[in-house]
Design goal:
single chain, mainly alpha, elongated
Length: 227
Amino acid sequence: MSAVPSVKTQFNVQHMVAAAIFARKVREIEATHDHQKGLGSGEPYYAHRGYVTGAVLSAVASLEATINELFIDAQHKDPYTFEGADPEFALLLAEVWEVIKRNPTLAKYQIALTLARKPPFDKGASPYQEAVFLIQLRNALVHYKPEWDTDQKLHKTIERRLKSRFEPNPFTIPTDAFFPKRCLGHGCAEWAVKSGEAFINEFFDRLGLSTIFARDREGLQELLRTR
């Protein structure tokens, strides 16, 4: 008889690191191409837009994976995740998971804080509001619905929410529609990473638990650095 080690692979950190790598790739393209000449219609153009989109999608995937993995770790009685926490907290998470697992991502974060008897996020302030807008941007990209630049509705809403939050795509001009043209640049990719990371860190700080980025913090911070 031989012992078989039990291994469980988490993916929440992987998603955020991927988002940061995508953001760095966007910056490299913007740093090595003439902003006045643009990117044309070849591979650099598609790579640039693809990396920005990848950063947004991966940052939101990290948000989703982080809260799901917390509840599942509670079911698995993972001692590392809940080190120093009230044992009742993990039991409560495990009990409600089957009931709330299909709830919206941010609602699950609020439920976890409530079960821990910690103050929930203020929905009208950062970092919660940034997370809301990040998820909405991800949804607009995944379920993209084209609109005429001169008759925008959904895209105009995205512009109102995001325009002041980051620098626009440098390969566009002021008269271009904000979404998706001026929106999708390094500024957006960097904002996605920082917003997702800030929300997750604040969540774990409120719980009094070690953040998911705590392991090899120095190495992870280097990977998450987008500039």
